[in-house]
Amino acid sequence: MMKEYIIAIIGLSTLLLAAVAAYGVTTVSTEMQDNKPAPVTMPDYSDELSALSMQVAQIKSDVASLNTIKTDIYKIQEKLVDLEKQNTQQVQQPQTIQQSRLLIDLDKYEYLPGETVKIIVTGAEPQKMAQVQFLDDGFILLNNEAWSDSTGTIMYGLKLSSALPAGTYEIRLVADAVTESQQIRIRAPSSTDTSNTASTSFTVQTGKSIYRNGEIIDVSGIGKPNTSVVATLTSPAGKVYTANTSTQSDGTYVLFYSPSQPYDHGKWYVTASNEAKTVIVYLIIQ
Predict the structure, then answer these.
(1) Would you say residue 168 has pLDDT above 90?
(2) What are the domain boundaries of the chain?
(3) If exposure means fewest CB atoms within 10 Å of the residue's CB, which of 38, 111, 213, 283 is most exposed?
(4) How sure is the predictor about 3, in pLDDT bands with cuts at 50, 70 and 90?
């Protein structure tokens, strides 16, 4: 009887242990299922990637445009260099032409002290001022102004000092940085020259080579003492103004003109006569 009771207790204990074991397994399984991680969801970057692709394409296009602009800049620089060279050649060419065509012509090349050197210059720039210089061994004795006319011609009378010693001198013209020179010779007057000069010399000169509108034009010189001087002033348009006077006992004389205003602009000339001798001088009215 006791043996059967013990066997019954052992069987019941076995059942209880089996039940507890089954519950523990079920609990662990349930907990494992409850602790299973949730599936990972990957974000969608397709829109961002598409935008980046468009930006990269735009950058490539911009780089290509910059390369084109760079090429254009190089071409423009080359054209500017060519234009600068052409401009330099055009600036230098007129100067070369001007230097080669400037010419001084004198009425003669040997003078006595006190005579007037008649100078005609061609090839100067029209309506420009020039310097007429008289030099002795490189030293400037006289430096006067003269103006060219509309054709680039300069006419000027250079009065020599009566105290000049004999020798070789230089007449120099400076116009727009272009210089041209001509030598002349001054010889000592002889007794024959002195007597001839006293009896036949006749000079004419204006107070200045350039006058302005409204100024009185003065003409003076030396002629045969106590004789008549007749002079006419002619405008560029052909108007003629006449004046008469007589030389003093020393042969000097002076005339004044006041033409009707406004004066004609340009080159005028004075034609003066004394004892069958005629001299023409030129002046400019601005």
Answers:
(1) yes
(2) 96-189, 193-286
(3) 38
(4) low
* Mean pLDDT of the region 221-233: 90
Place of tokens 């001839």: 196
The pLDDT of residue 278 is above 90: no
Quick one: pLDDT at residue 117? 86
CATH code for the part of the protein at 193-286: 2.60.40.1930
Residues in the chain: 286
Residue 131 is encoded by which pair of tokens?
A: 């310097």
The CATH homologous superfamily for domain 96-189 is Macroglobulin (MG2) domain (2.60.40.1930)
Whole-prediction pTM = 0.39
Quickly list DSSP for the chain.
Answer: -HHHHHHHHHHHHHHHHHHHHHHHHHHHHHHHHHTPPPPP-----HHHHHHHHHHHHHHHHHHHHHHHHHHHHHHHHHHHHHHHHHHHHHHHHHHHHHHHH-EEEES-SEE-TT-EEEEEEESPPTT-EEEEEEEETTEEEEEEEEE--TTS-EEEEEEPPTTPPSEEEEEEEEETTEEEEEEEEE----HHHHHHHHHH----EES-SEE-TTPPEEEEEE-STT-EEEEEEE-TT--EEEEEEE--TTSEEEEEE-PSSSPPPEEEEEEEEETTEEEEEEEEE-
